[in-house]
Design brief:
The chain has 2 helices and 2 strands; from the N terminus they run E-H-E-H. The chain has about 60 residues and is an alpha+beta fold.
């Protein structure tokens, strides 16, 4: 399995995919990112879960 920390070509913003405020924030970043510098990954997805695991954080108990 590849590490989530292999240097991606773009910064990745992790967010809680079931949080309405988080989803609205992602939409706002997209709106003001015309060069598409940022990428996004939900904490519930495979990439987000790998990052949480690498930092020994819960993959199910989010405080958002």
């Amino acid at each position: 399995m590849n590490s989530a920390f292999n240097t991606p070509p773009h910064p990745v913003i992790l967010f809680d995919g079931v949080c309405n405020l988080c989803n609205a924030s992602v939409q706002k970043v997209i709106k003001y990112d015309p060069k598409r510098k940022f990428r996004f990954a939900s904490l519930q997805g495979s990439f987000g879960q790998e990052v949480l695991k690498q930092f020994h954080l819960s993959g199910t108990d989010f405080n958002t």
